[in-house]
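pasting for the record
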Amino acid sequence: MEKKKLLEIRNLHVQYKTDEAIVHAVNGVDLCVDEGETLGLVGETGAGKTTTALTIMGLLPERVGQVTEGELYLNGVDVIHAPEGQLKMMRGATASMIFQDPMTSLNPVIPVGDQILEVLELHKKDKMSHSEMEARVDQILEMVGIPAARKTEYPHQFSGGMKQRVVIAIALACEPLLLLADEPTTALDVTIQAQVLEMMRTLKKELNTAMVLITHDLGVVARICDRVGIMYAGEVVEIGTVEDIYTGEKHHPYTTGLFGAIPDLTKKTRRLNPIDGLMPDPTRLPSGCKFHDRCPHCMEICKTAPPQDITEGSHTIKCHLYDKEVQK
């Protein structure tokens, strides 16, 4: 049985307009996520991962961020043209987002239980009584490993890892169809990172929630994702299954560079192989392939002509290296 397409993004372009310049944050992203699937988005800071997630949630900053081109459908709803009232009802129910920093994601003057209850009151008031909502708060806290008795406590009484568990509880309270996790473990130490990731994977299976995991950590992606998208300068330059990305023979040079920057503890030398150069200035993006000035395989055509998607089965790479017409 074919799975339903839950999220569909086609040729998405997003800009931020400032007094000084226009920031081209997302530049033609194509993505899709099926029901129950986990997609990992990987790339350096400034690649456009968070902006893509904010666009899905309809949370671009007013008068600054805007979609200039493209289509975005979430569970059949046109998010780009949907009224704010409809988007408000979708957030938390259809899609939820876990933001990067749990320290700033919670209201410091409201007990954590009330912050979870607020989501239920917004989306479930016609289906659940107040006592049922309170029971659901207890249930979701226990589900993320926090005793229900602590629901009357305030965020400052929790550690960083416990705060992140509360944030995840809020995001999952209404059992959304899609969970957007933006660097959910960045602010946590390594031990807690592993616990939180394992908890998210377990909850995802229990609730059959689709997930988009935004991260820099290719190790995390290998453990919990079904497919992987590599983003660079606002574009998806490579996308495929975990097997395509981790064991396939063909890769975008940027993907190869990301793997080269991972430390290998089996080798005597501990020196990393960083990618030369920096991410291009999003206010002045280069012509042609946006990676060409950092690419060890750069050809003349790379400097002038944007590469097309080259697809083999489930694996797509946007690179002139694999374009048979260019190689003739």
